[in-house]
């Protein structure tokens, strides 16, 4: 049952007190209509209004936070099955299993490898979120110390324990950064729910392959005051996790089934044979609905592919990452330095700029407005052609900064050279390589000729 | 009282057509087996609400020239067979390929500019060296495509080859060749649902049966546009299952070709330490391109690295196993 923003607004206090975090009740109402906020954020909504709005207004998949204001991950608040319908909003967290029972040096080394990992891609910093702390048969005391150590090192933490006392001890040591407790089961759920409610931390619920049973258990647990839940359907295989994650999301999003309205956690290492298969199954989980992905094998090569995939799948289709059109100096170009032109799709810009930088030959990079599309896509769509390049040359300060009249166009649009010559009669049109990887060689040839 | 989750099964109105490549002796060809793809009545691997009668197939790339520009991880993995298309195809079959994706790349004006005679010779050699069905792809330049694909089609008459790529600006000659020699075609469009539909209509207007077409929606590799391909494929498959007849066709993705254009697979010089081991990164770059696009409906995946091929076959084995 979807209410319009206006219909919701009529039920709100209309005082614009801003305590919900939005400037007006109308703004809050619009967010509620889009299922992006919780009605509970409004301290003054009447009981009557709550009745009318309950169910219709809460996000179908609850937003779960692990961490604190300094470092956190938020998962949930998804509203569509396919990213092309709108977008996927909150990318899954990547966690690596870390055994609390390792000796000090081994523990520190692995912890450091995980928290120290960072890589940059198209101007964004990509990194895993943290560790899933396995209890490795240590005492609750030692387990709690390891949790504290991991958190202090900068990792977000998932506590892999079914012992409520152990979970309680660990939560107490986390210094205000919320861990995710994994997990409540049919055997321990009452105590675990109490621990989660006491510390106000999210709690994973582990099923055993039956979504009906999982829903029942989740409902019971939420009834005990632990409302920030994460689901583990209990299945591990490729087809089984695809089915369970798909069905759970459909139930939440299409049927408003609250009992499964929570993010899902997956364990690709447990469903695959070996590190490389784990990387492939993890990729499936990234594309198909996982909120938390716990991996066993830490390998930068594999992690980099998954971080990239996560970045790709969770890009808003309406807002491909773009850079502003303009004339960019790369290295320290002089007025005699080469001039290259390409589109303002961020990947294009970073690829080309990166190659120019790597060549050691300073150059000017003219970024034309191609509505954020890549060279081929923009050319096919008529957004990167002789007209748009000529316009960029004339309006972006090229004539002031560049003293020569030679421009290098991407190899893939060689066919426009003739037209471009007509648009820019004083200019020599040079056709560069088709792949950005060919740029250093090309520039060397160009500047030594 | 146990809480029952609601029924969320999709009931689709349409299904993907089954498309068969290859012809055995009984059927007028010389292939040891045929390969059928498509036939899905639900989203990829959704065994709980439909049928997936045919597993996706790995098509291994074979080129008719020595691929000197391939990076070391790939050259080392294949060794001596590169540059000998017959040996290469035989080795691919040994590795477990389902199809051979033969690219007549030496016909490209800048990479050899060979002609119909060379094309005939290569096609003959490959047909003799392997019993697998073939896809035969031109060099990607309109005039040469037409020239060599016509020759290839004649040479392989009766073998039910998929000839590619047909594009909106150049399809007539290739479709005519397919009609003349009982072949299929690959219809390639630039990541656009409407253009895909349009090209299929143009091709069937020439009287080629709809189930003689495989769609290539154009593949972007991981990190280089994969999400565009992923989403257009989801939209194409949903349209097919919703009853749009002209889009009820299997899809091919060129994971190998695209992944090995990426800097991440081609070089290890001056790359960040976070990129990890070169060979593993490259293999997984290809494998994770392919695995993601299996989830969006790829029926044929073209691949290059032997290790990536093995990984994808494993993934397909697992995904085709309905949960008990």
Report what the structure shows.
The complex is a heterodimer of chains A (449) and B (324). With 449 residues, chain A is an alpha/beta fold. Chain A folds into three domains: 5-53, 3-methyladenine DNA Glycosylase II, Chain A, domain 3 (Orthogonal Bundle), CATH 1.10.15; 64-313, TIM Barrel, CATH 3.20.20.20; 326-448, Rossmann fold (3-Layer(aba) Sandwich), CATH 3.40.50.11600. Helix content of chain A is 40%, strand content 16%. Chain A contains 18 helices and 17 strands. Chain A has an eight-stranded parallel β-sheet. In chain A, helix 8 links the parallel strand 9 and strand 10. In chain A, helix 6 runs parallel beside helix 7 and helix 15 (386-395) packs across helix 17 (417-423). The longest helix of chain A has 18 residues, at 238-255. Chain A is globular. Chain A starts with a helix and ends with a helix. The relative contact order of chain A is 0.08. Chain B is α/β, with parallel strands linked by helices. Chain B has one domain (55-267, 274-320): TIM Barrel (Alpha-Beta Barrel), CATH 3.20.20.20. Chain B is 39% helix and 15% strand. Chain B has helices at residues 72-78, 85-95, 116-129, 142-155, 172-181, 193-205, 226-241, 255-259, 263-266, 278-295, 306-320, and strands at residues 18-21, 35-38, 57-63, 99-103, 134-137, 162-166, 184-188, 213-216, 251-253, 298-303. In chain B, helix 6 links the parallel strand 7 (184-188) and strand 8 (213-216). In chain B, helix 3 (116-129) packs across helix 4 (142-155) and helix 4 runs parallel beside helix 5 (172-181). Chain B is globular, with a radius of gyration of 19 Å. The relative contact order of chain B is 0.15. At the A-B interface, strand 4, helix 8, helix 9, helix 11 and helix 12 of A face helix 7, helix 9, helix 10 and helix 11 of B.
């Amino acid at each position: 049952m979807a209410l319009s923003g206006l219909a919701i607004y009529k039920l709100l206090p209309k005082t614009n007190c801003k305590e919900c975090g939005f400037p007006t009740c109308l703004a809050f109402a619009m967010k509620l209509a889009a299922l992006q906020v919780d009605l509970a954020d409004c301290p003054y909504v009447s009981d009557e209004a709550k009745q009318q709005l309950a169910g219709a207004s809460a996000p179908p998949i609850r937003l779960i936070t692990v961490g604190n204001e300094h470092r956190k991950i938020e998962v949930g608040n998804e509203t569509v099955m396919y990213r092309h319908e709108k977008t996927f909003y909150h990318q899954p967290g990547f966690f690596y299993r870390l055994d609390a029972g390792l000796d000090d040096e081994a523990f520190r080394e692995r912890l450091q490898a995980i928290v120290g990992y960072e890589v940059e891609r198209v101007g964004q910093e990509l990194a895993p979120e943290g560790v899933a702390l396995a209890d490795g048969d240590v005492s609750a005391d030692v387990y709690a110390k390891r949790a504290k150590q991991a958190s202090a090192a900068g990792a977000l933490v998932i506590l892999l324990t079914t012992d409520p006392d152990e979970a309680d001890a660990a939560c107490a040591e986390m210094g205000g950064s919320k861990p995710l407790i994994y997990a409540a089961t049919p055997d321990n759920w009452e105590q675990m729910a109490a621990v989660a409610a006491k510390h106000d931390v999210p709690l994973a619920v582990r099923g055993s392959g039956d979504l009906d049973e999982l829903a029942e258990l989740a409902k019971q647990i939420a009834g005990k005051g632990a409302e920030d839940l994460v689901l583990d359907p209990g299945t591990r295989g490729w087809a089984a996790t695809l089915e369970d994650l798909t069905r759970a999301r459909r139930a939440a999003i299409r049927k408003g089934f609250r009992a499964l309205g929570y993010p899902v956690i997956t364990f690709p290492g447990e469903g695959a044979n070996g590190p490389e298969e784990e990387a492939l199954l993890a990729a499936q989980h990234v594309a198909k609905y996982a909120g938390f992905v716990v991996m066993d094998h830490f390998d930068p090569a594999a992690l980099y592919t998954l971080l990239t995939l996560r970045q790709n799948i969770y890009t808003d289709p309406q807002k491909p990452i773009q850079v502003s059109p303009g004339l960019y100096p790369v290295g320290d170009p002089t007025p005699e330095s080469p001039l290259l032109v390409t589109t303002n799709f961020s990947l294009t810009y970073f690829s080309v700029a990166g190659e120019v930088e790597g060549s050691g030959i300073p150059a000017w990079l003219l970024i034309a407005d191609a509505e954020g599309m890549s060279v081929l896509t923009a050319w096919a769509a008529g957004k990167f052609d002789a007209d748009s390049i000529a316009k960029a040359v004339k309006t972006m300060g090229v004539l002031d900064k560049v003293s020569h009249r030679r421009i290098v166009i991407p190899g893939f649009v060689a066919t426009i050279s003739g037209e471009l010559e007509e648009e820019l009669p004083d200019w020599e049109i040079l056709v560069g390589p088709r792949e950005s990887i060919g740029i250093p060689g090309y520039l060397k040839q160009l500047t030594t000729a | 009282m146990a809480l029952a989750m609601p029924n969320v099964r999709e009931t689709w109105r349409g299904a993907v057509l089954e498309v068969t490549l290859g012809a055995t002796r009984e059927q007028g060809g010389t292939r040891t087996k045929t390969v059928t793809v498509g036939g899905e009545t639900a989203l990829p691997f959704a065994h709980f609400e439909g049928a997936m009668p045919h597993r996706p197939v790995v098509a291994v790339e074979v080129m008719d020239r020595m691929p000197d520009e391939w990076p070391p991880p790939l050259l080392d993995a294949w060794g001596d067979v590169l540059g000998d298309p017959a040996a290469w195809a035989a080795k691919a079959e040994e590795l477990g390929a389902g199809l051979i994706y033969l690219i007549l790349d030496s016909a490209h004006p800048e990479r050899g500019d060979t002609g119909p005679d060379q094309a005939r010779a290569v096609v003959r050699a490959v047909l003799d060296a392997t019993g697998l069905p073939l896809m035969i792809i031109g060099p990607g330049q309109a005039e040469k495509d037409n020239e060599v694909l016509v020759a290839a089609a004649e040479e392989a008459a009766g073998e039910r080859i998929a000839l590619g790529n047909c594009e909106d600006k150049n399809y007539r000659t290739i479709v005519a060749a397919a009609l003349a020699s009982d072949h299929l075609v690959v219809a390639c469009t630039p990541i656009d649902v409407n253009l895909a539909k349009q090209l299929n209509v143009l091709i069937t207007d020439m009287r080629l049966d709809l189930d003689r077409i495989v769609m290539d929606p154009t593949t972007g590799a991981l990190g280089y546009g994969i999400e565009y391909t992923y989403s257009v494929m989801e939209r194409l498959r949903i349209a097919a299952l919703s009853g749009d007849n002209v889009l009820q066709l299997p899809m091919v993705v060129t994971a190998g070709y695209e992944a090995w254009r990426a800097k991440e697979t081609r070089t290890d010089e001056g790359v960040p330490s976070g990129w990890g081991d070169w060979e593993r990164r490259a293999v997984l770059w290809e494998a994770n391109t392919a695995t993601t696009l299996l989830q969006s409906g790829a029926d044929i995946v073209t691949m290059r690295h032997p290790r990536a091929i093995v990984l994808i076959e494993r993934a397909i084995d697992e995904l085709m196993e309905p949960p008990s």
